[in-house]
Amino acid sequence: MKLLALDTSTDHLSLALTLGGAALVFHQPVGQLHAERTLPEIGRLLAEAGATLGQLDAIVYGQGPGSFTGLRIACGIAQGLAFSAGLPLIGVPTLDAVAAQDDGARQLVCLDARMNQVFSARYEQGQRVGDIAVGAPEEVDCPGEGWTGLGSGFAAYPDALVTRLGQALIATRPELKPHAAVYLDLAATGRYPPHAAESAELLYVRNKIALTAREQQARRA
């Protein structure tokens, strides 16, 4: 498949383009400059490939969960490009893209959701087991043993996750983030159906995006 993938759910801007061969990739930290950097970098990748949007089969975007603002940026840009070129969209959950970067039998993905919470999901044999959840890191569970812990939650809350889960974990890889090149691979599996640009949806998991002043004060006490 000929695909463009984008993710702006973290501090990284992650883009990947394939025309059926090797992928061209841009994956770098940009802070809060996703809105300014995304379109120019997409234009650069297309120019480097000597391609146009009209040659693509679909545009893949990080569906979430993640930064509320970042998710909206990626979805909005993906929709705009899809409308302009008459292309379908393919949404892929961010945690699926993290889990796919590890080839072990069991993965526990925990991404830092701020507010002393994590987005979490379990994967076995490459398939997600249950829904993506959000909650306190102390509430995350992984029955049995042989789990590899993936994602920023393990760096943000080491006591609540690494220490508490103990022997259930065989390794942790806290550096892993959603990566656009992985979105290309997942989209090509056919497990994520394409849809019209106007039907694009985001996976927020939670609706609250910040603590109130009272809640912040209680946490500091």
Automatic annotation (TrEMBL):
List the InterPro entries hit by this protein, alphabetically: ATPase_NBD, Gcp-like_dom, T6A_TsaB
Q: Which GO terms describe its cellular component?
A: cytosol
Tell me where in this chain the Gcp-like domain is found.
32-135
- Signal peptide position in this chain? none
Q: Which GO terms describe its biological process?
A: tRNA threonylcarbamoyladenosine modification
Question: Mind telling me which Pfam families this protein's record contains?
Answer: TsaD (PF00814)
PANTHER family named in the record: TRNA N6-ADENOSINE THREONYLCARBAMOYLTRANSFERASE (PTHR11735), TRNA THREONYLCARBAMOYLADENOSINE BIOSYNTHESIS PROTEIN TSAB (PTHR11735:SF11)
Q: Which NCBIfam families match?
A: T6A_YeaZ (TIGR03725)
Q: What is this protein called?
A: tRNA threonylcarbamoyladenosine biosynthesis protein TsaB
Native source species = Crenobacter luteus
